Amino acid sequence: MLKKTAGAAAVLLAAALLLFPRQAADGASAGISTCLGVLVPSLFPFLFLTVFLIKSGLSSAIGACIGKPFAKLFALPPAAAPAILMGMLGGYPTGSRGAQALYESGELTAEQAERLLLFSVNGGPAFICTAVGLGFLGSVQTGRFLLAVHLLSGLVVGVLLGLPHHRDKTPPRRTAAWPSLGSSLVTAAHDAASSMLLMCCFVILFSTFLCILQQFLSGKALAVFAGVCEVTLGCRSLANVLAPLWCVSLVLGWGGLCVHLQVLQGLAFRVRTGRFFLCRAAQGGIAALATLLLGERFSVKPALPPVVDVFGSLAQSRPALSGSIAAGVALIILCAAMLLDSSGQQNSVV
Length: 350
Prior knowledge:
This protein is mainly alpha-helical. It has one domain (about 1-170, about 180-305, about 325-350). It is built from 15 helices and no strands. The protein is globular and about 55 Å long. Keywords: Membrane, Signal, Transmembrane, Transmembrane helix.
């Protein structure tokens, strides 16, 4: 049944590409610009550094120095400390790459790697402070506040996940010797480049179909749908319709289906998709609640920029086709199919 539904969704999306070729091209171009201007400069160095620290064994040395507080808070081995820090500073997919590298190196069990991934899906300072705060909301102070709330909510989720495991005495899995620094350097560059390419592909794909969807939806409806699907366009759309700040905080914590696909693809350990989505919703909810409670106290009021279309090149008149969201529903169905399929592949690996 799922395959038939996904097939029908693929046909609808193919039809959308044929009916709106100019919009599809503009969306793909906007996605490529986002990748080259935002994702690659801000994420690739962190992806490389995270994998290199773990593959070279340096994370174990760092964890021995600073890992005890992390072990007590999250019930994870000290070697996970660098991956947790990189997951907080590097951007959404960095934490998952760290969890994957720690599992492959034998530093974490499959269960520990899954828990690390569940609370390490965080936006980085470059994205939240610069792109969202200054670029979309017109206020660096608001961006800093959103970053603090976002990271705090992720830490709360991590602490809650670790509560049942503080008495676990799981021995470390690692038995093999660490590779040389040169080999670790090459491996880190290869892994980071592969992950970066996959991320960019998803961003371009979502940007393409969200641009087509703009022909059918506008205003708040488009902002809500964009927030569910893609975090960058979601935050920008919410800023354009002057949505409350807690809505932006909710989208940042949720992360968007595009980020979810980036995070869950290519993992060697099992991640239960239901638990993953529950943690994403919990982090978004905690962040939104904290924004509601603390935003007024800290007098956080974004200086919103002039309202513009999400895709500036499409600021022309739209056809009178309001009401149909078939292409958008098809995109969500395909995402669900890919996530469930990746979960099944992970079950076969573990």
